[in-house]
User: Which sequence fits this backbone?
């Protein structure tokens, strides 16, 4: 059964609709993006103060729809992908375990260094530290894979085995974690602490609805990231010849139910990804992006407090519906753009087109390259400095694994 926004209004929600209001509320809940430039927009003092304050924030104009009253997540945010303007948020900078949504930051960090056309033969050592019982795509030692298949394993199956292999190809687990930390800071994502690049529960690891939205928005500017994130299903090599060609394949499916439209969740109209996650410590987490009528929105939802496995999708659905309905009727409460010196370009240059996984482009725009804007020398310095410290923290804490959603 498809999920739809309830459209219910509460007294508190109605009060929030006062023209130009900036209010605190109690917690409540196709096509593809056009390749277009994102103008630099440093967060305003007003937006910054709102986003760092506790509670729910929205600045509604006359006629703006009420926020959905069925959102129970500990932290959530809705933003415009093109401009970076945050339309509404609840405890946006609350630091919480991110689960596999952290794999978006892993992809931002390692994807530019590990193009899909390369091939790699997996070793036993690369698979030794994959947490027992965690989500995997099914890699086998001594098999040669296209790197593109490994990335599909990361995005679709949330495969921790694929993350471990790619991280070793990228220079090692600790080096990759340090690079991810540096990448987050370069994007203005200051709530994130990376301990385990696969998002598996680890002491001290955290992110926020704000930071996850930054990662998802930045990723959508890269055509490869955007294609992987939007893919609903694919064939994965089970056995391979020495040249990496498959001897046989099996199907893998995206664990993001808004993309597949399965297990009681309809496919969200205009959905273009991005990534879901679950651990016992994090609960259910989700970064969801969709495009309608020439507008692309991103919503992040962390740890709903009501409902079952589908609640994270239901709440993201309601928030995206609200965001599209509120177009032009709310003033931003903040920005996803990092504060930068005048004249410095935005870290996100464009939104890439997506055609994979059965997503039909709404406008068929031309793609544009990603702009990451981070210094290799800086990352290497941070990686080397942080490797020793992170090595001592590599042991994972007890807890249920980051498994496929039930």
Assistant:
């Amino acid at each position: 059964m498809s999920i739809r926004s309830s459209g219910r209004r509460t007294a508190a929600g109605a009060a929030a609709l006062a023209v130009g209001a900036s209010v605190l509320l109690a917690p409540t809940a196709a096509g593809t993006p056009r390749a277009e430039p994102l103008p630099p927009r440093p967060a305003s003092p007003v937006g910054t103060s709102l986003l760092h304050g506790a509670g729910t924030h929205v600045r509604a104009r006359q006629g703006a729809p009420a926020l959905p009253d069925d959102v129970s997540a500990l932290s959530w945010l809705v933003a415009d992908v093109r401009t970076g303007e945050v339309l509404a948020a609840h405890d946006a900078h609350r630091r919480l375990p991110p689960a596999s949504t952290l794999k978006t930051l892993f992809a931002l960090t390692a994807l530019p260094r590990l193009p899909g056309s390369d091939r790699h033969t997996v070793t036993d050592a690369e698979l030794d530290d994959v947490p027992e019982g965690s989500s995997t795509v099914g890699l086998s030692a001594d098999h040669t894979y296209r790197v593109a298949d490994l990335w599909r394993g990361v995005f679709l199956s949330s495969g921790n085995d694929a993350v471990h292999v790619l991280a070793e190809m990228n220079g090692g687990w600790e080096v990759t974690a340090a690079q991810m930390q540096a990448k987050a800071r370069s994007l203005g994502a200051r709530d994130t602490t990376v301990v385990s690049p696969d998002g598996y529960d680890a002491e001290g690891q955290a992110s926020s609805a704000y930071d996850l939205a930054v990662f998802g928005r930045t990723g959508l500017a890269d055509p490869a990231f955007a294609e992987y994130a939007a893919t609903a299903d694919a064939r994965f090599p089970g056995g391979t010849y020495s040249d990496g060609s498959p001897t046989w394949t099996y199907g893998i499916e995206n664990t993001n139910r808004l993309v597949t439209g399965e297990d009681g969740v309809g496919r969200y109209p205009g959905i273009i990804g991005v990534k879901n996650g679950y651990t016992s410590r994090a609960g259910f987490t989700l970064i969801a992006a969709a495009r309608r009528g020439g507008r692309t929105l991103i919503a992040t939802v962390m740890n709903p407090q009501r409902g079952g496995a589908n609640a994270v999708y239901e709440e993201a659905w309601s928030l995206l519906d609200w965001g599209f309905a509120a177009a032009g009727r709310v003033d931003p409460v903040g920005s996803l753009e990092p504060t930068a010196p005048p004249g410095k370009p935005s870290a996100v240059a464009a939104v890439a087109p997506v055609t994979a996984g059965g997503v039909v482009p709404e406008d068929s725009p031309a793609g544009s390259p990603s702009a990451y804007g981070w210094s290799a020398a800086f990352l290497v310095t941070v990686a080397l400095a942080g490797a020793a410290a992170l090595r001592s923290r590599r042991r994972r804490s007890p807890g249920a694994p980051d498994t496929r959603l039930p």
Summary: The chain has one domain: 31-392.
